[in-house]
């Protein structure tokens, strides 16, 4: 198709593919069917070839949407030999996904990382142009892998051009690609195009073509051959085009017509397969020349071994133009040809089914199992749903729908899962099936948006399932209910109900799942027993990253933030290695939250940033909100108030409508810290007071024990001592029944500032604070300030100096400056601290440089952070000048990770 009126867009694409040595990212070209996306891309491909780029292509096909990684296989086929050099986990995942080796179920993120590494290695030899057309029709697994790659090619010599129809969903829409919208052609350009393709049209016919095509380039080129002088009813554009193409197909001679029908139904486009199936239908051996009439009428293009349709609308028009019986016979013939490919055969047999067929249903079930084994959850869902449609037995139909729904939950397909559960409930369900349908959808967003009454319902369901002799599913349901107690406040009655069910489950008290449930449901009443179990379990970290993850979260609930950091830090490497990026941001968010509370800002910065990135990428808005709120808190502690405010607003926006309490609590904490460091103590008290008001959505009962010291500090300065006394009295009562370390540390601080004196400050400083440097620094600062106000300047200096040095080391800039001001007032000069090496880096750069300082290679860092090794190398090249180093060997010293004598 001539590129009339697309000069500006072509110029933009040509510039994009012009020498991508430093990395250019990509573009998503979108527009309605026939608007010229493919023609524009073809011109860009030609420009890329002239510029010396290697081109890799994949095209989505509607018939292949149910075949996991079909498009990725198409894209990587020319370079798959390079996969032999991939790290073993990536190589294994990629081979399994592409069906080229027997292996365990591949992880989607490892497949994405393998594709990225392979493409990056190929691009090192010759820059790449990746063309992904009709991504709205790609199988979901391939589209996800391409989106993964698209987010990470900003520093690679790789350009990605993708095309998508207007209004169609695709993971590529959220992959950070720039957007190019193709609209219809203006009238003068449309007229020029029609005159170029059909110069002999009469004035009447020309006017009609221009009117009906309405600027759509495909219509402008194809309608002239079908237009008549007689008036016809006006139809939607695609319907008019499909009718045009259908008429063109109907005019073909036999057996070209039968062969074209088979080609339209053959998702792979193989010429040999098409000829074999069509030959079976017409009863003779067919040669490629049989399709010559279809080529002449511009329905198809015929290459050496492949039949391709000139436009997807042409492909879809053909089956719509024949009877149901003709389609059925064609599908059955293809199924026979694909006898050695059971998945494809099963789908064609299903398409040919005219009613219930249990044999076909079983074949589809097997196809679903194979798809899942290759990591194709979306393909497995589609196969199971189709199996349900042809199921003869109602109970098996429901089982297949619920299995499909469970897979949809695991792959994040909420709308699909809801529809499948709804379809299952439309029939008669067994008690077991009703229980499954009841808890299945609860995994989305930890139930944050659900009615609170749902928590008690889940508790009763768990008990019922346990009574039926299924303790593991019961524990899973109970865990889902307990998680809701973190995000929302269900009330004491519901908590007691949950706890009663937990106590009656036939599970050992030391079972990590039960320990975590108790921590979530009864963070104070069960804190003693939970803390004992956690300390024993802490000796076995690293065995199961998922267990470590929820034990880290459980530790956070009972005020044991040191254990929370320990468990979460143990969970993260295992989750990375397994490619479980859905769970990783949960572990990272808890780790970042905990490290900030412990004062380890330098370590928390990259962890919080990565948690936010992966939470956003995996569609977990509330974990994204929590990680962003932690970033706001870090910015406030560092004295970057503008950044703190922006991040707090972003986190609050994510959480407010759903009332996600942990996010809102952390937001208020960040606001209070920022206000305090700016000297706005009234505002700070108002912000922090909300954390202790049960009626406020920012009050999270388990987390409030961490905020007593902050509240006490600003309450005294804001003249809100009476209000502080009330809150401390309430917390003192709570402290009688829980050993939560954070609560007791906070109360010792509050007592000291409420009734300041040497004894109370010395008592607080004499407590076990080895793992709590920020709290120790806060005590020294408060003690030094009080001593100075008592005109004991000499005594105050040692405490203020310790506070300054502590906060400098921790990167808590606002607090360190406060200590400096107090020292000057106490008669001691205090030099300003220059920026720490870590503070010169972005969180992303800090993640990379810390791993490099530990001795990891670029490839190992890439595997850890889900980046290509070339991207890691590019970042290190930029980082070295920032730190004033010239080699990896100097990084430890630059980051302060070695002592002076070791340096």
Automatic annotation (TrEMBL):
Supply the name of the protein: LuxR family transcriptional regulator
- The HTH luxR-type domain covers 834-899
Q: Does the keyword Transmembrane apply?
A: no
List the GO cellular component terms.
Answer: cytoplasm
Biological process GO annotation list?
regulation of DNA-templated transcription
Q: Where is this region: Disordered?
A: 822-843
Q: Please provide, alphabetically and separated by semicolons, the GO molecular function terms listed in this UniProt record.
A: adenylate cyclase activity; ATP binding; DNA binding
Q: Which SMART domains match?
A: HTH_LUXR
Source species of the chain: Amycolatopsis lurida NRRL 2430
- Keyword vocabulary terms for this entry: ATP-binding, Nucleotide-binding
Q: Name one Pfam family in it.
A: GerE
């Amino acid at each position: 198709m001539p590129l009339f009126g697309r000069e500006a867009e072509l110029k933009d694409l040509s510039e994009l593919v012009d020498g991508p040595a430093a990395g250019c990212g990509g573009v998503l070209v979108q527009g309605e069917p026939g608007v010229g996306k493919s023609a524009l891309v073809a011109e860009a491909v030609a420009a890329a070839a002239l510029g010396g780029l290697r081109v890799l292509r994949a095209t989505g096909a509607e018939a292949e949407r149910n075949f996991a990684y079909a498009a990725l296989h198409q894209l990587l086929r020319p370079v798959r030999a390079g996969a032999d050099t991939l790290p073993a986990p990536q190589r294994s995942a990629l081979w399994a996904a592409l069906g080229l080796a027997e292996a365990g179920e591949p992880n989607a993120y490892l497949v994405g990382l393998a594709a990225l590494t392979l493409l990056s290695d190929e691009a090192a030899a010759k820059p790449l142009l990746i063309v992904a057309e009709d991504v709205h029709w790609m199988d979901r697994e391939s589209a996800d892998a391409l989106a993964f790659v698209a987010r990470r090619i900003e520093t690679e010599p790789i350009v990605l051009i993708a095309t998508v129809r207007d209004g169609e969903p695709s993971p590529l829409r959220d992959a950070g690609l720039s957007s190019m919208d193709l609209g219809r052609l203006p009238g003068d350009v449309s007229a020029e195009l029609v005159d170029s393709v059909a110069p002999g049209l009469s004035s009447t016919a020309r006017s009609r073509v221009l009117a009906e095509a309405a600027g759509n380039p495909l219509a402008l080129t194809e309608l002239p051959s079908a237009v008549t002088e007689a008036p016809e009813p006006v139809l939607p554009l695609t319907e008019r085009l499909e009718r045009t193409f259908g008429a063109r197909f109907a005019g073909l001679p036999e057996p070209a017509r039968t062969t074209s029908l088979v080609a339209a139904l053959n998702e792979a486009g193989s010429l040999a397969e098409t000829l074999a199936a069509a030959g079976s239908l017409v009863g003779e051996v067919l040669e490629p020349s049989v399709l010559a009439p279809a080529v002449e009428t511009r329905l198809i293009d015929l290459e050496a071994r492949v039949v391709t349709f000139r436009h997807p609308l042409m492909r879809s028009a053909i089956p719509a133009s024949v009877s149901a019986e003709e389609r059925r016979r064609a599908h059955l013939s293809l199924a026979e040809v694909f006898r050695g490919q059971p998945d494809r055969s099963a789908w064609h047999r299903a398409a040919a089914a005219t009613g219930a067929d249990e044999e076909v249903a079983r074949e589809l079930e097997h196809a679903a199992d194979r798809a899942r084994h290759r990591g194709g959850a979306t393909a497995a869902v589609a196969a199971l749903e189709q199996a349900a449609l042809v199921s003869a037995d109602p109970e098996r139909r429901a089982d297949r729908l619920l299995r499909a729904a469970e897979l949809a939950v695991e792959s994040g397909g909420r709308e699909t899962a809801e529809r499948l559960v709804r379809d299952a409930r439309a029939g008669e369900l067994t008690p077991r099936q009703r229980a499954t349908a009841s808890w299945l959808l609860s995994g989305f967003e930890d139930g944050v948006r659900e009615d609170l009454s749902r928590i008690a319902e889940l508790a009763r369901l768990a008990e019922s399932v346990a009574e039926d002799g299924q303790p593991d599913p019961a524990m899973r349901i109970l865990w889902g209910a307990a998680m809701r107690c973190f995000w929302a406040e269900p009330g004491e009655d519901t908590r007691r109900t949950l706890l009663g069910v937990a106590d009656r489950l036939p599970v050992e008290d030391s079972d990590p799942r039960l320990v975590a449930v108790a921590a979530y449901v009864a963070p104070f009443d069960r804190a003693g027993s939970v803390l004992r179990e956690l300390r024993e379990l802490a000796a076995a970290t690293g065995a199961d990253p998922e267990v470590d993850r929820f034990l880290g979260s459980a530790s956070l609930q009972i005020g044991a933030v040191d254990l929370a950091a320990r468990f979460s830090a143990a969970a993260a490497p295992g989750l990375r290695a397994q490619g479980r990026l859905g769970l990783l941001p949960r572990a990272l968010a808890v780790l970042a939250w905990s490290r900030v509370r412990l004062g380890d800002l330098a370590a928390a910065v990259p962890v919080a940033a990565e948690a936010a990135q992966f939470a956003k990428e995996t569609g977990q808005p509330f974990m994204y909100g929590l990680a962003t709120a932690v970033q706001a808190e870090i910015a406030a502690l560092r004295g970057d108030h503008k950044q703190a405010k922006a991040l707090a607003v972003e986190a609050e926006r994510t959480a407010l409508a759903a009332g996600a309490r942990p996010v809102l609590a952390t937001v208020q904490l960040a606001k209070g810290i920022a206000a305090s460091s700016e000297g706005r103590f009234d505002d700070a008290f108002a912000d922090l007071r909300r954390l202790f008001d049960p009626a406020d959505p920012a009050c999270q009962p388990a987390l409030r024990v961490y905020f007593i010291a902050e509240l006490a500090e600003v309450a005294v300065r804001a003249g809100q001592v009476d209000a502080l006394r009330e809150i401390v009295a309430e917390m003192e009562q709570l402290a009688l029944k829980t050993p939560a370390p954070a609560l007791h540390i906070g109360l010792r601080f509050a007592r000291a500032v409420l009734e300041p004196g040497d004894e109370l400050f010395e008592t607080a400083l004499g407590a076990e604070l080895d793992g709590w440097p920020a709290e120790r620094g806060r005590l020294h600062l408060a003690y030094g300030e009080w001593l100075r106000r008592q005109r004991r300047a000499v005594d105050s200096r040692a405490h203020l100096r310790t506070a300054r040095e502590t906060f400098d080391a921790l990167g808590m800039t606002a607090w360190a400056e406060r200590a400096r001001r107090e020292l000057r007032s106490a008669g001691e000069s205090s030099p300003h601290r220059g920026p720490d090496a870590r503070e010169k880096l972005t969180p992303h750069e800090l993640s990379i440089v810390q791993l490099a300082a530990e001795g990891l290679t670029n490839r190992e860092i890439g595997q850890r952070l889900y980046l290509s090794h070339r991207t890691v190398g590019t970042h290190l090249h930029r980082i070295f000048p920032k730190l004033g180093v010239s080699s990896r060997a100097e990084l430890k010293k630059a980051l302060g990770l070695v002592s002076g004598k070791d340096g």
